[in-house]
Amino acid sequence: MTDDVLTARNRANAQNSTGPKTEAGKTKVAGNARRHGATSRPDPDQVATWLAIILDRPELTSRDLLPEDDAGYRALALAEAEVRFIMALQALQEFEAGCAASDEITQDLREVGQGIMQELIDDGGTKREVRSGTALMDHILQHEAQETHSGGKRHRLLKRYLAEAKAQRRKALAAWLAVAA
């Protein structure tokens, strides 16, 4: 295949992957960054602290925080990249230290499943109902394990965020060094 054919095919495929279209879907994905904090907006105070270190100025001016030249933009980008890297690293370390709790949806699922099982026990459900309830609880526990245990989906996601933050920091540092030299 020629490059033009590949490009056309890739563009056609990209049109199918444009994210959620409904308001409910958009609302759901809007909360993804708040779920673990690894990709949320960096704290401006921390960015300012790193910018002061990068520029080697203990006191920053408003001009430093709102740069007008290429070096200022690159320094600010490096400061933000550094803060994002630290946030991603902290989120991964907290997860690996066992501080990761189940998300609200998983906790709600578990409570519903436990309620169903309790009703089946209290009301003496049929064997089929008990098997269905047990299967439901197994699925909920598997989902929870994926969310809270090492090697699960959340762990892999946090590792990916850290790798992306490292790459962003490396590029920002190279850009900063190119204009600072």
Automatic annotation (TrEMBL):
Residues 10-20 have a biased composition (Polar residues). Residues 1-43 are annotated as: Disordered. This is Uncharacterized protein. It comes from Roseovarius bejariae.
